[in-house]
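Dear colleagues,

I hope this message finds you well. In preparation for our joint manuscript, I am sending the Heat-shock protein (Aliidiomarina maris) sequence together with its predicted structure, so that both groups work from identical material. I would be grateful if you could confirm receipt.
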Amino acid sequence: MNNIDLTPLYRSSIGFDRLASMLDSALRSDTSSGGYPPYNIEALGENRYGITIAVAGFEQSELDIQVERGVLTVRGRKTEDDKGRKYLYQGIAARAFERKFNLAEHVEVTDAELRNGLLNIHLVKEIPEAEKARSISIKDTAKSLEHKQS
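The corresponding structure tokens are as follows:
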């Protein structure tokens, strides 16, 4: 139903092979997690970002953060056994979760902290010096020929 033709983009762009799969996964509705746990993504500066995930009830040992092939994955899995408890009402969700975030090229996770039930993940975009814009000088071949002839 959601078909996007990226052919015009590929005519003038090189190296955006992952773009189609990223768009496809973004357009697919993620009903498996049901919006749990809620999160924020912030721009903290020109090249700094932050992800805050509400993980109330999870301990540090029950959370796992991994980065692989440009995808940041955050997982939570409760380890304590609730079988002995008899809830009259259970409004605090403590179910397992997995959240994935696609990272742009050169975006790296610098650190993470758990404070007051919020998992804060800090990211920075560091473009290598070799890939930054640089000016290319143009030689004037006419002047060098005149100089050689005199």
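For the figure legend, we might mention the following. The chain is about 15% helix and 30% strand. The domain at 36-128 is CATH 2.60.40.790 (Immunoglobulin-like).

With kind regards,
E.M.
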